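DATA SHEET
Item: assembly model
Revision: 1
Owner: S.N.
Input lines:
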Amino acid sequence: MSQGSSRADSGTTVLRGGRIIDGSGERTGDVAISGGLVVAVGEGLSADRVVDCGGCVISPGLIDLHTHLREPGKEEAETVESGSRAAVLGGYTAVLAMPNTTPAIDSASVVRDVQELGRTALCDIEVAGAITVGRAGEQLAPMAEMAALGVRIFTDDGTGVQDDRLMRRALEYASGLGVTLAQHCEVTSLSEGTCMNEGEWSSRLGLPGQPAEAEELMVMRDIALARLTGARMHFLHLSTAGSVAMVAAAKASGMPLTCEAAPHHFTLTEAACASYDPVFKVHPPLRTQGDVDAVRAGLRDGSIDAIATDHAPHAAHEKERPFDQAPPGMLGLEYALALALTELDMELADVLARLSWQPARIAGISERHGGPVAPGRPANLCVFDPAAVWRIDGSGGASRSSNVPYVGRTVRGRVRHTVHDGELVVLDGAAQR
Amino acid sequence: MRNLLSIDELDRDGLEEMLDLTEHFVEINRRNIPRVPALRGKTVVSLFYEDSTRTRLSFETAAKRLSADTMTFSVGTSSVKKGESLRDTVETITAFGIDAIVVRHQSAGVPLQITRWTDAAVINGGDGWHQHPTQALLDAYTIRDHLGSLHGRTIAIVGDIKHSRVARSDVSAFTALGARVILVAPPTLLPSSVTGWGVEVSHGLDRVLGSLDVCYLLRMQQERMSEALIPSLREYHRGYGLTMERAARLPAGAMILHPGPMNRGVEIQAEVTDLPNCFITEQVSNGVAVRMAVLFRLLGSGTQLDVLREEP
Amino acid sequence: MDPDDIGRAVKRMAHEIIERNHGVAGVHLVGLQTGGVAIAELIGDDIVDIEGSQLEVGSLDVAFYRDDIGIRPVMPEEVTNIPFDIDGQVVVLVDDVLFTGRTIRAALDALGDYGRPRSVQLAVMIDRGHRELPIRPDYVGKNLPTRRDEVVDVGVEGVFLGEMVK
């Protein structure tokens, strides 16, 4: 939930010399901010404070539909605060916190706890609730009481709902509440005990793998159940060519479905696992070049609506275990924008659509985020230099963890400033608190 | 050559060199005093997360015959705490001042991972389903010793290829040395892809028996039945077990090999082990010589030297 | 030395070995890899011609006994072949060049792991000086004073002296 304008700078701040790109188009102009809102957009605006944005793009803040904040339960890996710091450094002004914490976010009281932690965060923390109690896949969680606190998206992420009948009931119930179910598509009977994609590489490396079908079978089932129930659904981290094709076809037929892809699924392939470095272990796993190409194509043609990081911090000692024993997941918040600009052959406005206003719409937060940079709207903005070239190092950035699979990669595009509710939470690449 | 993690690190010349070096140690092992001072002052550590008395003793015997000192860390004793981070264990051992670590672990990739945390030479004693390089070397040596060369020979590897580090290492070694390799197994026991392995595949032992120079049998584990990979051990034996009747249909001079330990009555009929062309015990004795060659190559042959000093 | 010189030196050493050991009963030649093996075979052939009796010639690779393992690259050449029992026997080590003496020291250690000879004698085609250990030859083809940085190359085609290439 938003912090309100009490912390906004008194007086006016002007973002000067940038190029504005938002859902309504592209234009040059200065942006004046006061009282937590954009108050003017134009040339030659005056201000108490001027922030240089020369050479930069000013866009609505980025929105991450898929972040693991690890609090409550695994604070050594990340907290709401440290995760939010990593987020704003990556240009995000809101993130959707996944409910696979300990305890899981499956009741109003845990929702309230995380929302309370979010009040002092550097960006907005939206909370996703679990579909089933304890994410155990057996019994529906009290979605209505969580929805009453503003939860709009429910998922058992970390795992998918295995039981067909339960998933059907969940979709029916959710549609009555007007909320959206999001699925981590993975059929555990095909994926249990595996640690990478099944194929040429898993065979060579002697590691148990899961086939693309472990994801695709659940995508197929959920499309069918969504059609049966008429419910709205969001597919998390699609990673295979087959998944992208099925969701694209279902959307084209008019179904209210949306989907996302993670930066690692358009940047890395299963070949990275040859080093046996558990930093490359993730669910769904890194796939083949053909799958990477399909994800890129899906983002380009709009079949995939959003880029979502699936930022998954793990303490260093957890990732220093054997590959098959280490927990899956990689960091992403500080790298998503740069990876998108470097790896995807797309127009800047389309990249920003996938990172900002489209995920904002899916999360149901378009009133405050992702909207046009225009007077009267909340000042949640990302200012970045699309030409800045930098090398990703292994420190992990602001996250408490450092499981970064992109160490040593040179990328293009770097956040210079981030404005959250009118507050400059990132100035010249440094978090202000 | 700093470490031996996978047979893939050795090309044909590298493999031949290891086999040639092994011959020296075979000769030494025949002496009354099977010992040379070559690795005096060096310390070789066995880090065995998976129980394997045979392989561990083979390595330790090899080290001792080279006059090296040995240390054992096995998860069977409490010297390796379960849950203690791999990195902590390796860094602790390295701090003792050691020259080589022989590691065996149920997870693939562990030997490669630990090379990041130690300067000692790392030898893979078996990692999950991935590789068992010294086994492949002793297998190749045993075959070369009897057939003269592996080039152009037809070798069948029979059994649970999918879960076998011995199979993966043998495939690499045998194909690099120019052999024709046939994997014989039901589809459920083959890896999901053998693209790029340079092998043929057969789903029946009878079909290939008559053309073999070597019939290499893998151990068929009881656990595979619970994973719905084969209906029963009996059905496996029926299609793939080397019975006396099948052994009789092998060409004259064909070798029968097995990495041990054997499941008699499953992949191999007990009486077959007494046949003159069954070289399983030779594999074991060659194993010590091969491991001596590997240890000498990594610790004694000077390839770790940073600077070649001139003859004084 | 040219091939004829070598032949004459070999014949002389063969006579000396026979003379010193009062015949060749219980005497075995062991050539050191790699340069000593050919020389040992030449000496052995001449002994057989002279004495008429058989003589066993073995070969020994001392790589694993060298004292410079870990200081420079060391790899063995040919597999050692000592097909006779050396306990209580006379073993004549044969090498092409005697220089620092370290190779011979390694050979003595190696022989010790095969058995306990009654005595060990040393025959070399060339003694080039610069001993670093108290080792002395019993039979010498030719004494050839050299500088440390010179290289001596011995083969059945002859002995050549050269400069070390830096």
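QC remark: The first helix of chain C runs from residue 3 to 20.
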